Amino acid sequence: MMNKFRNKQAIVEFIFAATIITAVLLWGKECSQGALKGIYFCAEVLVPSIFPFMIISVFIAESGLSEKLGKLSGNICPKLFGVSRNLSAVIIMSMIGGYPVGARGISALYENGKINKSDAVKAAYFAVGAGPGFLITYVGVSLLASRETGLCLLTAQILSVIIIGVLNKFIITEKDGYNSNIELCKTFPSFTSAVTKSVISSAYGMLEMCGMVVAFSAVIGIAEKHFSDNTVYLNVALEVTAACNLLAENNNVILIAFATGFGGLCVHFQIFTALKKIKINKVLFFVYRIIQGLLTALFTFIFINIFNISLPVFSSVKAPLNLSLSTSAIGSALLILCAVSFIYSIKKL
Q1: Model confidence band, residue 229 (pLDDT cutoffs 50, 70, 90)
Q2: Which of 119, 154, 157, 224 could form a disulfide with 115 if both were Cys (CB 3.0 to 4.6 A apart)?
Q3: Within 10 A of 302 (CB to CB), how many other CB atoms are there?
Q4: What is the C-alpha separation between 252 and 246, in angstroms, rounded?
Q5: Helix, coil or strand: residue 251
Q6: What pLDDT does residue 191 have?
């Protein structure tokens, strides 16, 4: 039985590899342009908005600060979400940091023995969301020329995360058999060691993330050639940054809200990679992201109407993508680096 499964898996992997190679050979130009857009998104949007928060999130877990902040928060997390109070800071960081920040923090706490497996699994399902750097600065100000809209998107997403976290408490009820609210680790690394490990771990995580974004952007570049009528939905399903960039052209704020709540498969893969030692139900995770997208869209619609926020007819002030790196050594090196990172990330899934 195991041999049959492995043979089927090998056949699927071969077909997948053959399809990708054929697509790249036939539509190399579209693939290259899509990959370059991905590099642009990483350099201009994702790294500046997510990397600092990722370092802070991992540092909170590595330094023992999570337990100290957990004490200050009392029993809010256990009562509200049914998880250890040690997760308090990481859950907050997931709401204001960016998509993989929560997953990285949860993984660090679990690997350091500061939360049990059931707490890690529970938090992994709902501690997912875009941060203010992406929603307010990039989507709100840069794409829609409306900081108020960005604030609405951020508030809507935070509310959706909280609601899913509360519901998740009653859906995932498994326990590991011991109380994770007590201090599980008495010794912590030095400040210098915690900072160094946080930066290195976050840098590695950013490489994985950027590799995913570049790879998915390349796929979108090829797919857009054949599915031009469904480009918007394709972007929403696959890669959130490209989706927001495209949706902003028509000021489609509600669909942007859904896209940021859902995250896209590219973000989902990044989170699965960060949670490699924590087994979660990927179907349930996907369902939660759809619900989060719908809730974010609903709250955004309500806030925009309550506060009577209007967008300029031609509100998108985004700059055209600068693809000049495509002919430079720097551009080639970045593309190769991101591709290698992506391959390594897939290998570890």
Answers
A1: low
A2: 119
A3: 13
A4: 9
A5: coil
A6: 80
3-state DSSP assignment of residue 16? helix
Q: Can you tell me whether residue 309 is helix, strand or coil?
A: coil
Q: How far is CA 147 from the centre of its chain?
A: 22
- Calculate the CA 240 to chain-centre distance: 9
Task: Give the chain's mean pLDDT.
Answer: 81
The closest alpha carbon to 334, from 223, 240, 217, belongs to 217
Query: What is the token pair recorded at 5?
Result: 């499964």
Q: Is 139 exposed, middle or buried (0-12, 13-18, 19+ CB in 10 A)?
A: buried
Tell me what pLDDT residue 192 has: 86
Report yes or no on 275 lying in a domain.
Answer: yes
What does the pLDDT read at residue 4? 59
User: Is residue 134 in some structural domain?
Assistant: yes
Residue 346 token pair: 């897939």
Tell whether 2 is covered by a domain: no
The amino acid at residue 78 is: P
pLDDT of residue 330: 43
Q: Is residue 199 exposed (0-12), middle (13-18) or buried (19+ Cβ within 10 Å)?
A: middle
* Helices and strands per DSSP (H, E), number in the chain: 17, 0
Spatial distance between the Cα atoms of 333 and 325, rounded to a whole number of angstroms: 10
**What proportion of the chain, given as a percentage, has pLDDT over 90?**
37
